[in-house]
Inverse folding.
């Protein structure tokens, strides 16, 4: 059934029982939890209550700055503050909060943690509206890439300095794959891989792409089917842009 955005409540689309860890948990153990659960946000508890959120970005920063994951507890990591939303709020309204404040969103009901709502959750709801917005205003036209034989560390450094979550992997005249923050967690750090090893071994391939002219709902469907959050877009001369799940949420909420 096609719904108007006015009918989309956070409580109907949030992820229940978000994964959490005590702030005295070792960072190495926290990374293992995130990799096994395939999540990019780990709720950090202090005294049994949510205090901050550990994200893939903080882990990436240690790789770039120190060349390794340090032997520290989560409480020693500069984790992210979160914004609190209610299950009764509209998805389109909390999307605005997420995008403008650049914060993860935890859902509290009567001062109790009830869930977390992510960009993937929001897209799942917004797609039911039947809308199919243009992506012209949200497409990222600058695409960063590494050659397949370059190092994991070089890709991590590009992602950190450019504040992006992925780099494409080029081989010859084509892009053969993509390396993401999630790949860093699940394929590199939890496997004890050498950061100077070749990217090709740890990237996701084959590369899933779509035409540059694709619209929001259609792009979101491709992401959902392939369980990805970044979609490179092709034109007459190869890849000419990339769109993320967050970008598509932004497109849905625009007039």
């Amino acid at each position: 059934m096609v719904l108007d955005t006015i009918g989309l409540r956070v409580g109907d689309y949030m992820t229940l029982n978000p994964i959490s860890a005590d702030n005295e948990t070792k960072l190495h153990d926290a990374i293992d939890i995130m990799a096994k659960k395939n999540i990019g946000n780990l709720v950090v508890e202090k005294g049994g209550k949510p205090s901050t959120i550990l994200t893939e970005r903080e882990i990436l920063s240690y790789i770039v700055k120190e060349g390794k994951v340090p032997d520290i507890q989560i409480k020693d990591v500069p984790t992210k503050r979160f914004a609190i939303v209610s299950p009764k709020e509209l998805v389109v309204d909390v999307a605005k909060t997420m995008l403008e404040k650049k914060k993860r969103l935890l859902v509290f009901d009567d001062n109790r943690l009830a869930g977390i709502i992510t960009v993937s959750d929001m897209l799942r709801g917004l797609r039911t509206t039947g809308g199919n917005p243009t992506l012209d205003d949200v497409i990222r036209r600058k695409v960063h890439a590494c050659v397949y034989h370059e190092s994991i560390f070089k890709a991590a450094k590009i992602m950190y300095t450019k504040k992006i979550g992925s780099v494409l992997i080029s081989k010859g005249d084509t892009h053969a794959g993509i390396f993401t923050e999630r790949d860093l967690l699940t394929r590199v750090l939890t496997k004890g891989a050498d950061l100077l090893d070749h990217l090709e071994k740890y990237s996701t391939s084959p590369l899933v792409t779509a035409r540059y002219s694709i619209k929001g709902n259609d792009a979101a469907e491709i992401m959902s089917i392939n369980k990805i959050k970044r979609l490179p877009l092709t034109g007459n001369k190869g890849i000419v842009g990339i769109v993320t799940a967050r970008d598509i949420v932004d497109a849905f909420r625009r007039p």
Q: What stands out?
A: The two ends are 22 Å apart (CA to CA).
